[in-house]
Amino acid sequence: MNKVEKRVLDIINIDEMIGYICELISIKSLTGDEKEAQANVASKLESIGMEVDRWTLDLDELSKHPDYSIEVDRKEGHGVVGVTGKEEGKTLILNGHIDVVPPGDESNWEHSPWKGISKDGKVLGRGSVDMKGGLACAIYAVKAIRDAGIELKGKVIIESVVGEEDGGVGALACVLRGYRANGAIIMEPTELKVAPAQAGALCFRITVQGLAAHACVREEGVSALEKFIPIHNALIELERKRNERVDDPLYENFKLPIPLNMGKIHSGNWPSSVPESLVVEGRYGIEVDEDIESAQKEFTDTLDAVVQVDPWLRKHPPKMEWWGGQFKPARIPVTDPLVETVVSAYSDTTGDSPVLEGVTYGSDMRHLVNLGDTPTVLFGPGDVRDSHKPNEFVLVEDLETTVRTLALSILRFCGY
Amino acid sequence: MNKVEKRVLDIINIDEMIGYICELISIKSLTGDEKEAQANVASKLESIGMEVDRWTLDLDELSKHPDYSIEVDRKEGHGVVGVTGKEEGKTLILNGHIDVVPPGDESNWEHSPWKGISKDGKVLGRGSVDMKGGLACAIYAVKAIRDAGIELKGKVIIESVVGEEDGGVGALACVLRGYRANGAIIMEPTELKVAPAQAGALCFRITVQGLAAHACVREEGVSALEKFIPIHNALIELERKRNERVDDPLYENFKLPIPLNMGKIHSGNWPSSVPESLVVEGRYGIEVDEDIESAQKEFTDTLDAVVQVDPWLRKHPPKMEWWGGQFKPARIPVTDPLVETVVSAYSDTTGDSPVLEGVTYGSDMRHLVNLGDTPTVLFGPGDVRDSHKPNEFVLVEDLETTVRTLALSILRFCGY
């Protein structure tokens, strides 16, 4: 680490950054409802001296794009991008999403999900780990460089995006607006691992049809639940087979690199009626280099095989939909200069080599890599296991490592 | 058939009765919300010259009774009973419930469920078969006897009761108010069979606990759905075993005299989360002479056997509740004078012997027989298969047979 780098790291104000994360958490920004939080980030980016591009997403236009996928009932969306630096070096994007998932039953939370709190070495609240913490690290890394009076040769771009949780409409909009770069870091919670690969995840919905009957003549009806059970079992077997096949070294530590999850099941509406339909919604993990259509075919073939051996299902085939978030996989070579930069920055920050590993969840990486031709890694504080849960938190220690690693990565990638 | 009987049958005005059924259908009377319909029936009973007893149910007091069971959120309930005749003969109760089940998706109805329509030999609308049609038959049978100027030796009592669909609070209230008799007919849709026995049905709810996890680390969670599947299979097997055992001649034509139905299943709330719980609600059929506690034990033993072989379930045993409608079985001897009366009345009305058969569904019979010591049969127009469904209907032909059979039954049972 040279003197300039040391000066920048010394300038980083962790306490102020934690205060800002708490401020962001306290602005509710459920997917589809991010306006206020985006306005806050835009002001923040301006306050640290970035040029800010703010625009309203053209949802009609975006919806025509083949990579558009959305689950919530979105009325509007806002783009916020900050830029600083010159055209003389490489450009680096730091991307973070501002939207958060619903808190569920708030009585399961020790503190309000909508009040950021710093306590016992943690920052708590909805969005702390997924991913207002990571987004704030990017902002404070750039702030430190500017506060140190460093002039970057290349540009650094901070993208605060909406709608990541339900398909990435905000990141898609950034790419289509022209934001591409020589590299990008998405500050998703990777436990500080560097992830140059991301498995895909396709949301699906299966509707199984039965035949209603009063429970007192149950045998005259057909229970959609009973008809679903062999489908469930076949899908579990499909998951086993597919995961056995994965031999990607970036996923060797995962038991289930491409999980198939059946997450939501509703059937019937009266205890004394035979349930006439069953709807199951889930997500289907896709290997990093897998062809999407072949993977979809493997799924529907599995479903068809169950249908073919059951006379009722043959006559009343279940309805199959690929619906909601369609997260395609993405990968960049581990030899990409971006990977090298982040690895060295992490090593110099911590004294340790980072783990290089793929992630099994979907993120905006696919839009940046596949559509934007921007080599991208995921790298961020905290554990994805603590996201989408009550009492979400991120460790302050992780936030410190992240902001420092990002600051060094910007300096080294963009030059000064 | 003697002259008096013939005169009474001739006086019955079927068209007027159908008009009244349509009027009753057009007064929405969902379980828990029967006030307006009960007021209408009370006026009707007065208009045909019956003494009417109207009262407000004391729900607090009723809720202390061991036979009280309820599912809806009931704010109030109304009792309506009409009486006519003298104390010189036997007393006969005609019992019908005024409450109806929800129509479900109204777009599946050809006509509005809340508009009674007479068309092509049918009366259509919610409650037509279950059981405003049957209730109107009782009223018009009594009306014909009164219009004919016959003085009954015994008393005939018409009970219009609320809350049958969710546990029979209205019939319970009638018994506790002192309405007991030498015989009772409940005009449930029996396809004009005479039913001196009724199987029981106990509503149950099982809550299976899993462990939530993000779908990307699915193997770190426990799917409540997966844990439920062996429970489902064990309950299906229990149903098979129990039904094989039934050798009651009144049930010899049923494939499943005591069905076990799993009618409503909800699990999980996000496609990308492992479902942390599953709730299944259903009803458990009980043999006519079966001991309720032994039957419940057989059910919970079956559940326990699944739990014992699964380490997760052993540590997190499913929650089991007997909840909502708890319809105990009931039976009277086929040699009871009431059965003889209804059989002869039906035979003289139609020229055919009626079928004597038990029913597999719960009704208010249990309150009248078990608590009120009143020998009771079910006998009424239409098919229970057409109840609880869109486009509910009852055949006019069945209504005619019912009102005539009821009129003759009253004359012969009460004397004149």
Considering the chains and any ligands shown, give keywords for the structure.
homodimer; Alpha-Beta Plaits; 2 domains; Aminopeptidase; elongated; 4-stranded antiparallel sheet; 12 helices; alpha+beta; 6-stranded mixed sheet; 416 residues
- Main beta sheet strand tally, sense and closure of chain A: 6 strands, mixed
State the shape of chain A.
elongated
The pLDDT mean of chain A sits at 96
**CATH homologous superfamily identity of the largest domain in chain A:** Zn peptidases
CATH topology of the largest domain in chain A: Aminopeptidase
Strand portion of chain A, in percent? Answer: 15-25%
Helix-and-strand structural type of chain A:
alpha+beta
How many independent structural domains of chain A? 2
| Terminal Cα span of chain A | 14 Å
Helical content of chain A stands at 25-40%
- Largest interface: which pair? A-B, 57 and 57 residues
CATH architecture descriptor text of the largest domain in chain A: 3-Layer(aba) Sandwich
